Amino acid sequence: MKIFGKGFNFNQDGPGNRLVYHLSGCNMRCIWCSNPDGMESSAGKDYAIEELLKECISCKPMFFSGGGVTFTGGEASLQADELLDLLKKLKRENIHTAIETNGTSPRLKEILVFIDYLIMDFKHFDSDILKKFTGVGNEVIKKNFEANCKVGRQQHIRIPLINGVNADCPQGFAQYFSKFNTQNTVFEFLPYHEYGKEKWTTPYKVENGFITAEILKKYNDTFKQYGLTTVTT
Fold first, then answer.
1. For residues 169, 200, 132 and 111, what is the CA-based torsion angle, rounded to 10 degrees?
2. Could you report the per-residue pLDDT of 188-214, keeping only the tens digit for each?
3. Which pTM does this prediction carry?
4. 17 contacts 10 by C-beta, under 8 angstroms
5. Mind listing the pLDDT tens digit for each residue in 105-114?
6. Measured between alpha carbons, how far is 155 from 6 in angstroms, rounded to an integer?
């Protein structure tokens, strides 16, 4: 498994204290990405699955407050075979598992069998606009979201809010999500930041991406009006 970063985080990458693995490679090219150093599949270091399993088991005492192991990226689902191998072994050890994904993998349903907590990005409801800013449309993302709603699977949907990309359309998001059974779904808004800007080796393309407090309030109010549950982590 190719990994370009790892470390502990509390309550931001799933519940409790978690060992977070950043898997190398991503099929999206989000212009605001905070981890551009992990976009290429060649980034990082190779680890044997048994080595990672041993590390996770040794960290069990650190998984307090319902914690465990989270796989993020890049895009973790691009290494689906290796990920599934490790996930199955982690479940045998009764270690809580989570994934942060962009939702574009046709294999997500297969992976979720071994995942306790799903965090999935949903950057835009309009496929053409999403493709303009990330290079990938949302057809598979919508299929995965809708399938999760249909079976009542837990899902934590994160929406990064970027001025000039999606900050002006809370109604469009809410109208789309409200068509489905979101009883086991929560939504979180992530205001734009520039934490990863210095990592870019090519020109950083976001200009004036910050949103106002009024925009964030509008999103929260609109989702509430549509009966959608929002959270902040």
1. -80
2. 999 999 999 999 999 999 999 999 999
3. 0.97
4. yes
5. 999 999 999 9
6. 23
